[in-house]
Amino acid sequence: MEYRVSKPASATRILVRGLLSPFFPVLILLLFLTLAAVLRHGLEQQDDRQINANLMNEAHAMANGLEREFIIHAQAIQRMAQRLAASPETSQAAWREDARHYLEDFGVYQAIEWIDRDFIIRWLEPIAGNQDVIGFNVAFSEERRRALESSRASGTFDISGVINLKQGGQGLVIYAPVGTGEANNGFVAGVFRMRVLTQQMLSSRVLESFSIELLSDGAPTYQLKPSDDTSEVFSHTEPVNLPTLNWSFTLRPTKDWVQSQRSDWPAMTFGSLSLLGLLTSLTTLLVQVILKRNQALLKTRRELEREIDQRKTIQLDVARLESTDTLTGLANRRFFMEDLAHTLSIADRQMRQVALVLLDLDRFQMLNDSLGHQFGDELLIKVSERLNGLSNERILVAYSGGDEFMLCQQQVDSVDDVIHLLGQVKQCFEAPYEIQGQGFNVTATMGIAVYPHSGLDADTLLRNADIALYRAKDQGRNTYQFYTEGMQDREVMRLELDKDLSQALRNDEFVLFYQPQLDLDRSEINSVEALIRWQHPRRGLLSPVDFIPLAEESGRITDIGRWVVMAACRQLARWQGTPYEHLRIAVNLSGRELDDD
């Protein structure tokens, strides 16, 4: 079983994969929305702090105004008390006249009263609406009595706090003692209605924008303008510094006032960042689409490039196959001839010589037929490997086919260069070839043609090298022959003989001659050797040397051998009943015939 270990993805690949994820634009939008929400919350908190500060300033200003107004009214009442103490004979009419002036000047009083030492209201202005108050004891509780006695003893004014007025409604009373101690002649009191007091002391803006709750000793005492429209979030409690009173008030703004204090920046910031996040997400999505399309294009381009590379490789392989022999790996005949033609054109311009060597393996056909084609292929591969060792920038080795190889030597300066190459070729055949576990000694015959002496073009040079090769074979194996003048005439004659040889059997142009074999011991002739001759119609009687090699090469030797055997048998039949009937006939056979069952 094969186990594959997957390679871990690189950080860059993981980053790119994450950036191209469809969730990435959503993440960007969520980040912007989160940032927008955080900034809006921060700005709203800042607004809240500012609203609280503004509310505190409003409350502080109101407390200061309330304290100032109370002091003014208290001092006014105190001045009336001082004038009455200074003029105890003041008549009720004069006092009422003085009280009316105060009522007209200040306009906030419900009433101004004179209270005797027994805390009974005696004088009152105005009378209308207040008749029931005359004769009322203002020390209606022990607490009020102690406060008034303390005020009389100290000579300082007393403020009653918010009480239920005898005239109706809620209000408060400022008591200013008329004299101190034993000299006290009662009190001058200023009665205020809370509703009128607050309306006089507070502006319309404050009354419209706030709900005010008055606290005495921390307990709610009076509430001005209770409303359901007030904010439940914002409120501020401010102490009021008044003599004899522990007052404070709680200021609650309306929702409209709170909204008017808020800035537009939180909403604008949230909207801007949300829009920016949406645009960024859409831009990221567009970039992702572009990048994915670019990736697809790059992938397609890489696939096209791979396909182009594959086609180039195939073309190179095809070109190599077109120029290379698949068995030996050497250049094939076609490529060799094209290169030879190119080499000759260069040699013509440079005035140089070029040598073409045709190499033929001796007895290869016999070895191939007897030992098999696999043996022949292995032998060709081994020979090719050795010959290919001679290849360099000046020598090209090629396989022509069959048992024939070709070598081209460029830039030949003298015949010694060619002789040196032939020596190198012979060294390739000195050592035996190890094939199928056995060593075989193989030799080669070579024909050489040199440009420009042996031909001016590739085809002529090849034909003349072939002629030299056959000439070398005629002279024996394991040798070489340069092409010389006159070889072509002999080759033409050989080709004509080869052509006529195909008709010789049909025309019955062969004849047998019988050479006697003498027994020297008994001086008797007991056998003869059949020797074939060719009675050529134009060239006359030809010996076996002139046509048997041609028959061997062309494969006609088996037909000729069969004719020889049959002709010898007929001759034996004709000798029956003659003095020659005891003779035996010896017939020569070719190696090719031994392979024929």
Please characterize this protein's 3D structure:
It is a single chain. The strands form five sheets. Strands 1, 2, 3, 4, 5 and 6 form a six-stranded antiparallel β-sheet that branches. Strands 12-13-11-16-17 form a five-stranded mixed β-sheet, sandwiched between helices. Among the domains are: 87-200, PAS domain (Beta-Lactamase, 2-Layer Sandwich), CATH 3.30.450; 328-485, 2-Layer Sandwich (Alpha-Beta Plaits); 499-594, TIM Barrel (Alpha-Beta Barrel), CATH 3.20.20.450. Helix 2 (23-86) packs antiparallel against helix 8 (265-323) and helix 10 (364-371) packs across helix 11. It is built from 17 helices and 21 strands. Strand 7 and strand 8 form a beta hairpin. It has 597 residues and is an alpha+beta fold. 51% of the residues lie in helices and 22% in strands. The two termini are 54 Å apart.
Short summary:
Helix content is 51%, strand content 22%. It contains 17 helices and 21 strands. The chain has helices at 11-19, 23-86, 92-106, 142-154, 194-201, 204-209, 255-261, 265-323, 333-350, 364-371, 373-388, 415-427, 458-474, 487-504, 544-554, 557-574, 591-594; strands at 109-115, 121-125, 158-159, 163-164, 170-177, 187-193, 210-216, 219-224, 236-242, 245-253, 353-361, 395-401, 404-412, 433-435, 438-440, 444-451, 480-482, 510-519, 524-536, 540-542, 584-586.
